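Chapter review: from sequence to fold.
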Amino acid sequence: MKLYKMTLMLCAMLLVSGCVTKNAYDKEAQMAAEYEALNQKLSAELSADQVQISRMQNELKVTMVNEILFPEAGWRLSSKGEQTLAKIVPTLSNLSGQQVVVQGFTDNEPIGPELRSRFPSNLELSSARADDVAHFLISKGVPSNSVSAQGFGEARPVASNTTPEGRAKNRRVEIVIVAAGRP
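The token string follows.
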């Protein structure tokens, strides 16, 4: 009898843990729709080596290499960068209950002399780039209370810094869309 009760309780726990609330299901469906909208907009116009869109549980990430956003050794958006970001503004402007976190990254190469007077390290350069993207998004209608920016410098590389191709991949901006209240 004891074994029967324990088995019954275990089955009930497994059944309950497999259930998804309607709210969680709706959020997942919304994220899937946003992913598809962003993917269609950007995939048709930009090459996969310039922009990547990935979807993880409760998160969408748009990764853009610096060369499409900023001029060489720059931290202010280029006109091409503004045009690229303008394509995703309508989607980002219509998010509800989500946060848009702009993250800037660099490679591990020391900053050149033209930037050294303004930025002591790659960390400050990556922060300035993330800030400029965030300011642009806000200026085009993305609600300011849903946008934040972070710079990570050379931390969190996605490729080896030993090759020019790897360093180019590490110089990037990621726009991460997460449910409000999540880090």
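Two observations follow directly from the output. The CA atoms of residues 134 and 144 lie 9 Å apart. Strands lie at 51-56, 59-65, 98-105, 147-151, 172-179.
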